Amino acid sequence: MPTTKKLTRTADAVAILKKRHVRTPAREQELELARLNAKIARQIYALRVSARLTQEQLGKLIGTTGSVISRLEDDDYHGHSLPMLLKITQALKQRIEVRIVPQRLSHVPARAVTGSFAGRLRSRSRRVTKVR
């Protein structure tokens, strides 16, 4: 008798989308980059609006045009540069903070983890799953 895979149901929309669309580590990295770009765009927009400036006005303050500011505020824009972000934050009397944090374990491909570290990692993940 053939064995069938038991399906687990979830109502978590993020989990459903991730299961359907994020199948490779490369795709997950693309998604993280898109999230980061969208977050930067939203922050630029929020800062400009809170300063009560139009895109044209902010552009003039930093020596560029309103269309460049529009592009920077677009969630799909992938060309944010540190020098441009510094100009914007300085014009709006803000500062930039950069944090470097460890990758989540889900981003590490299973083949990349080898040796005794892999054994400790597997035993840790078993302990965590039992606690949940």
Question: Care to describe what's here?
Answer:
There is one protein chain. This protein is mainly α and 132 residues long. The chain has a domain at 13-99: 434 Repressor (Amino-terminal Domain). It is 58% helix and 0% strand. The chain is built from six helices and no strands. The chain has helices spanning 13-21, 25-50, 55-62, 66-72, 82-91, 115-131. Helix 3 crosses helix 4. Mean pLDDT is 79; it is low at 107-132.
Integer average pLDDT: 79
How many beta-strand elements? 0
User: Biggest sheet: strands, sense, closure?
Assistant: none
Terminal residue distance: 33 Å
CATH-derived architecture of the domain at 13-99: Orthogonal Bundle
What would CATH call the class of the domain at 13-99? Mainly Alpha
CATH superfamily of the domain at 13-99: lambda repressor-like DNA-binding domains
Strand content: under 5%
The tally of helices reads 6
Low-confidence stretches: 107-132
> What's the gyration radius in Å?
22 Å
What's the shape?
elongated
Q: Which structural class matches the secondary elements? A: mainly alpha
User: What's the CATH topology name of the domain at 13-99?
Assistant: 434 Repressor (Amino-terminal Domain)
String of helices and strands:
HHHHHH
Proportion of helical residues: 55-70%
